[in-house]
Automatic annotation (TrEMBL):
CDD domains: Glyco_tranf_GTA_type
Glycosyltransferase 2-like domain boundaries: 6-144
Enzyme Commission code(s) on record: 2.4.1.212
One Pfam family per UniProt: Glycos_transf_2
Organism from which the protein derives: [Eubacterium] siraeum
InterPro entries reported in the protein's UniProt record: Glyco_trans_2-like (IPR001173), Nucleotide-diphossugar_trans (IPR029044)
GO MF entry, a single one: hyaluronan synthase activity
Keywords on record: Glycosyltransferase, Transferase
Source organism, top-level taxon: Bacteria
Protein name per the record: Hyaluronan synthase
């Protein structure tokens, strides 16, 4: 039976989570799925869990064992093997909403869009908070061009993410993108380089991805983002180098995505580093680089940087900053959509 969706699961020491991840993909249309677990040199035996599922579903689940090369290398290897009409990446500690997969498969069968967007939830395991990250197009289920998307950025941006994007497989492969390896945060490349070239984008009002957050061991925790700030810098510089070669709507999309990652870099440097002077110096160096190498992104970001440096000097940290971002007044002034 034709495979409609390839699901690439990069897996590194994910033994506590992988069974839940794979269970979430078992539904009435599992035979339409091409599930690829990429074992990235794990030492906890998580590949044995994958093998147990392969024994039960050999036509739908496969395993690739490889030496450790990082999250991006897992996606690179998995995408080469993907045979589904579309492909989507699912991290091994996350899961899909099982009950929505059949409708998702039907939608993918009936479109040839380069990119399909779906909303997702974040589930904070430390406090139980669930947030809905959705887009707000004028109409779901119709095709938009990148020009249309960029002219309505705030209606689309929350789904133009690693968790919200599904690529048509031949479109992704034809772009020839190889994600950075042996670094964290290359998921920003995944959501930027191929998507910027999309000619057709289809938003669906259908939650698929459930994103687990709130674990201090995750790469997205504040402590780890500071520890790996050099990784963010590496990805930012690659996005800068690539983005400057784009034109039109693709160039604006890449600039917007680079701007968002730059803001993350600035927040980490200015609000998470206890050595506030060192944080300011790191932020100044990056902004100087952007002013010289990617001036459009510098212009987008300089006002935000000024505000963050003020918070830095007032000794307002990440908790206080997030309280501001989540306030109703801030979101009303910014005309941001609700997360409800």
């Amino acid at each position: 039976m034709e495979k409609i969706l390839s699901i690439i699961i990069p897996s590194y020491n994910s033994k506590p989570f992988l069974a839940k991840c794979l269970d979430s993909l078992l539904c009435e249309c599992t035979d339409r799925l091409d599930i690829i677990v990429v074992n990235d040199g794990s030492t906890d035996g998580c590949e044995q869990i994958a093998e147990e599922y392969i024994a039960k579903y050999p036509a739908s689940i496969s395993l690739i064992n490889k030496v450790n090369g990082g999250h991006g290398s897992g996606i690179n290897v998995g995408s080469e093997k993907a045979v589904g009409k579309y492909l989507k990446v699912l991290d091994a500690d996350d899961w899909f909403l099982t009950e929505n997969i059949p409708e998702f498969i039907k939608a993918l069968e009936n479109t040839d869009a380069d990119v399909v967007l779906t909303p997702h939830h974040t589930i904070n395991i430390s406090n139980g908070e669930v947030k809905s990250w959705r887009c707000f197009p004028p109409q779901f289920g119709r095709i938009y061009t990148m020009d249309e998307v960029m002219s309505q950025w705030k209606n689309f941006d929350r789904s133009l993410t690693f968790h919200g994007i599904t690529y048509r497989t031949d479109f992704y492969k034809n772009e020839g993108i190889k994600l950075s390896e042996k670094v964290f945060y290359e998921d920003h490349e995944y959501a930027t380089f191929p998507c910027s070239k999309a000619k057709s984008i289809l938003p669906l009002d259908l939650f698929i991805y459930e994103y687990r957050i709130g674990d201090v061991t995750q790469s997205v925790s504040a402590a780890n983002q500071l520890k790996r700030i050099g990784h963010t810098e590496t990805v930012l510089k690659r996005m800068t180098a690539e983005g400057k070669s784009f034109t039109g709507a693709a160039a604006l999309y890449c600039a917007k995505k680079t701007h968002l990652l730059l803001l993350s870099f600035l927040v980490t440097s200015l609000l998470c580093d206890k050595n506030r002077k060192a944080g300011r110096q790191r932020a100044d160096e990056m902004m100087s680089f952007m002013d010289k190498e990617y001036h459009e992104v510098y212009e987008m970001s300089k006002k935000h940087c000024k505000i963050l440096k003020t918070l830095n000097r007032l000794h307002i940290g990440l908790t206080g900053y997030n309280r501001i971002l989540n306030s109703k007044l801030y979101n009303k002034v910014r005309h941001n959509k609700s997360f409800d």
